[in-house]
Design a protein that fits this description.
31% of the residues lie in helices and 21% in strands. The chain is built from 10 helices and 15 strands. The protein has helices at residues 42-48, 97-107, 111-124, 128-146, 162-173, 228-232, 276-286, 302-309, 321-334, 346-354; strands at 20-21, 27-28, 35-39, 55-60, 68-73, 85-91, 147-157, 178-185, 200-207, 234-235, 241-242, 254-256, 292-295, 313-318, 341-343. The longest helix is centred in the middle third of the chain and has 19 residues, at 128-146. It is α/β, with parallel strands linked by helices and 358 residues long.
């Protein structure tokens, strides 16, 4: 068996191999494990299983408040389907007792994030959108705790609620730690006849509280064919000549990266799947070999796949059994001999194993 599944429950302190911080701050259960997959509520897992100041890079692609229920059709790979749809996750929100609990928990943090929560509730009232924002506020607070001071956090969202999430994240990480709004532009799909077609997502980059990693050289892109600088360089007013870098130029904050082609072999068929090229650029830019990468909404495991490919250690969390099973199978297929740990309660593990991807 190329992976470990220790017995345990949703509470991390029940795991015999619960991770602790090493002197280097790495959060992993076993020294020889490439990473760890958790099936369960990421808020509870972040609080009880992940040491403080242990993640060098956090990427999260949470639900977008899309008011949709996401399903997966068995065998939906390479454009083919051969089964009935299976529910994966629900992205619909309403005000509830849980939302009130989230609101009260955020108020206890005091400071800017508490004032932000009060303002949002006053403006948006007890709505589904408010419940969604409070849910993510609590998780961003937990992520702030596990992020190293020298680390970076990428928050992936879209125009549905991204402008509100930016305010929430500013209240948690501080406006001074906001680095970039990255626009991921993609094509494909239909075109609207009533408005401009929505073909981009937003990714907000925040720093921890210290000097963060930024590696522009590994992510250089070719100069545009029309670039005069790329053809002959430029001369400054002082007469100094500057020539283009043969490796290309560092990308700006608008990234043209295609979505995964429906007919591609790398496509898993998982809803909301992101292309490996997107995650590879993020990991190359904001982490180094051997660093720990955390994805608390890991879905089909694209972040984990990219981390393994690039020599990073990884932690993935998802509360959907199908997501963890897809991630597990994807890693085993892509990296023969890989060793990693899966933590799941017994009943969750049984559900996960019944949902083996085709």
């Amino acid at each position: 068996m190329k992976y470990r599944e220790p017995p345990g429950t949703a509470a991390c302190d029940s795991f015999p191999n619960a991770p602790t911080a090493s002197p280097s701050g790495v959060a992993h259960a076993e020294n020889d494990a490439a990473g760890t997959l958790y099936l369960g509520d990421n808020l509870e897992i972040l609080r009880t299983c992940i040491p403080r100041n242990s993640a060098d890079l956090i990427y999260l692609d949470p639900p977008f408040c899309s008011a949709r229920n996401y399903t997966l059709t068995a065998g939906k790979r390479n454009g083919e389907t051969d089964g009935a749809p299976t529910a994966v996750f629900t992205d619909t929100w309403r005000w509830s007792d849980q939302a009130e609990q989230d609101f009260q928990a955020v108020l206890k943090e005091n400071g800017a994030v508490a004032e932000t929560a009060r303002a949002l509730r006053s403006m948006l009232h007890e709505s589904g959108l408010t419940a969604y924002l409070l849910m993510l506020a609590r998780r961003l607070l937990a992520l702030r705790t596990v992020l190293k001071p020298s680390g970076s956090l990428y928050l992936h969202c879209d125009p549905t609620a991204g402008h509100y999430l930016k305010i929430v994240a500013d209240g948690i990480f501080g406006r001074s730690n906001f680095i970039n709004e990255i626009i991921w532009h993609y094509t494909g799909g239909g075109r609207s006849k009533s408005r401009f077609s929505q073909k981009h997502d937003c990714i907000y980059l925040y720093a921890g509280s210290g000097n963060r990693v930024f590696n522009p050289d590994p992510i250089r892109v070719p100069y545009k064919p029309t670039s005069g600088y790329a053809k002959s360089g430029i001369t400054s007013k002082a007469g100094k000549r500057y020539f283009p870098d043969p490796r290309g130029t560092p990308p700006d904050d608008v990234w043209d990266i295609p979505i995964v082609n429906p007919m591609s072999r790398e496509r898993t068929g998982y809803p909301t799947e992101k292309p490996p090229a997107l995650l590879e650029r993020i990991l190359l830019a904001s982490s180094n070999s051997g660093d720990t990468v955390l994805d608390p909404f890991c879905g089909s495991g694209t972040t984990l796949y990219a981390a393994q490919k690039l020599g990073r250690r990884w932690i993935g969390i998802d509360n959907a059994p199908l997501a963890v099973q897809y991630s597990r199978q994807r890693l085993l297929a892509a990296f023969p001999g890989i060793v990693f740990t899966v933590h799941a309660a017994m009943e969750q593990r049984e559900t996960m194993c019944r949902l083996s991807p085709a």
